[in-house]
Amino acid sequence: MMYSNCTNVILIVKIYEGIKLIDLIDVSTITTFVIPYPDSSPLKHHPMSDKKKLTTASGNPYYYHEDTQSVGPRGPLLLQDYILHEKMAHFNRERIPERVVHAKGSGAFGTFTVTHDISRYTRAKIFNKVGKQTKVLLRFSTVGGEKGSADTERDPRGFALKFYTEDGNWDLVGNNTPIFFIKDPKKFSDFIHTQKRDPYTNCKSPTMMWDFWSLNPESLHQVMFLMSDRGTPYGYRYMNGYGSHTFSFINKDNERYWVKFHFKSAQGIRNFGNEEASKMRGIDPDFSQRDLVEAIDRGEFPKWNLKIQIMTEEQAQVHPFNPFDLTKIWPHKDFPLIDVGVLELNENPKNYFASIEQAAFAPAHVIDGISYSPDKMLQGRILSYPDAHRHRLGGNYEQIPVNRCPFAVNNYERDGYMRVDENGGDNPNYYPNSFDNIKPDESYRQPDWELESNVAGWFNRNAEGENDHYTQPGNFYRRVLTATDKRNLVATIAGAMSGISGEKKEEITNRQLCHFFRADIGLGMAIAKALGVDIDAVMPVLPKEHAVIEK
User: Is the pTM of this model over 0.85?
Assistant: First the structure.
């Protein structure tokens, strides 16, 4: 902010690190002074020699930007002052629909560099040479909150990547957890409703959350991740990212491998404690956004090491767990991590709305050498994510610069709202034709799928053989968490469950406690004690299917 030729004493309020400093400055002898902006708002100063004319949206220069034409200085305004209407009409339309999930987010550009050869597994060109670099965009997010929610809410974090490759854009749309709450996409909208607002109170409802989780024991693994300190990471730089789903690799011999993607933070793992996260929500609700932007501005470029797990088709057929079940992990001792490359974020977007709010990621966007799997949640997202973007950004959302492939886009899609390129020019808009030179490339053929069944039906995702919801959560509690982690987990779960209210409070509480007991008796006992629940009194009244506690 700059003032020139000031002659009065003025009051200046400067804010540094949340502390207001008030100065009285005598500027009677100062011709020019500058008040510095905080680092998080680095407004650029442009020399007067670069002066540009102020124009309307249609490019017409005009002068009266702050005063509307009126009948006399105190009379009514004139309808003909078009500038007023243009400014307000555009202002009224500045907000686009926020994402239904992952509404609050941050992001940056960077590079992915291949450090190890994995060509035996995949022919994807992004991995075809050690040292090869590919431009990327990474968007982080919280999941359940609205766009104005706090960054340090207890919530999974989105980890969505767009790789700009010569074979098209590859979107890897995951989270900071390798698992999820449900295993069939039909449950997704119901689940998300429980994470949003109660239709009567319009408040978040622990009762809704725990009611759904207790009725869907498949959620237990992710619930325990969420309620651990991993549910409140210290910003985005100090957490891992995962593709979460099982995907497939296809190599030059058309052999298929199943694959999972892991991005391990080179900064290490750092989390807020429950009280620290709650306090930060009030101090700085944009903590993660500010931390990421300022770190990159300082030249402290965050990095993640990409590692993969590989499973053969033969191994998948005999694995004790369904390898396409999003509520399960692949044990590292059976499927060790394989080094692939390094992801680095080194460029903040010049404009947040243009590059982050308008960014659109979809698991449907894979490239040659990388494909889908029978993962039911992945299959559902292949359809729903592009559909969400067409609703939010329009049918031509992939023409928005941040979403557009920087190499080649050749097809017969035409017209639609906000078509901003040449719309195919005078080339044919149908295929096949006798005039253009666009042809399908046979080298991009994929191998056929061999299906295990020829019966179509509605199958219970938690039928016998698919209903072990407790072994992996128990292992997580016993083998992964430290003693301090365990205490924090119990305290956080007890605090969250104490918010259950209403006439079903006891039923919901006891049903969820039963799941914790089945994962680990010690965990169940600790949570029950923290909640003040008398287990001996509860056991006789539990439904039969919940009355047996299994180690």
Answer: yes
